[in-house]
Amino acid sequence: MAYLFGDQFLQDLYAGQQVVLTADYRQLAEWVARGNYPVGLSLVQASVEPLRAAGLPLERVFPDDGPGSTLGGFSVVMKIKGSPNPNAAVLFINWYLSKEGQSIWEREMLETSLRTDLPHNVPDYIIPKPGVQYVDVYDPEFYFGHRLAAEAKVAEILGR
Hints:
Blueprint: H1 2-5, H2 7-14, H3 25-33, H4 45-53, E1 69-70, H5 86-96, H6 99-109, E2 135-136, H7 140-157
Parallel strand pairs: 1-2
């Protein structure tokens, strides 16, 4: 949000708003669905969609005044340099990137795989749309040039 709208937007969004933080995505979705809080930022579909399917009043809102972003959700896989069993890591990564592995991951996490040979049985709002300019939050220039500073600004605003 800082990248798109500036530091003052972050200040206005977070300061004095009685912001509550949690690292538990399920808890966040339940708080909003049950009316504990009227708005939730960064809700993940794997937590939201089961509650919507159960009839709880959750609505996804995507503002028109900013592009989407490409996130890997929980899909980022890394091989640790110098790990004790590098062959097993390579074997797992190859399976994970296979059609079977990505089908399972997509189904369970409701995240879109980059594989083009999958049917993408995920909510429509997850599938990138043609013609939309997305912010690639994994691009090193973005990460080191914008994200780290924005995270520090939010921590400053929240006094953490």
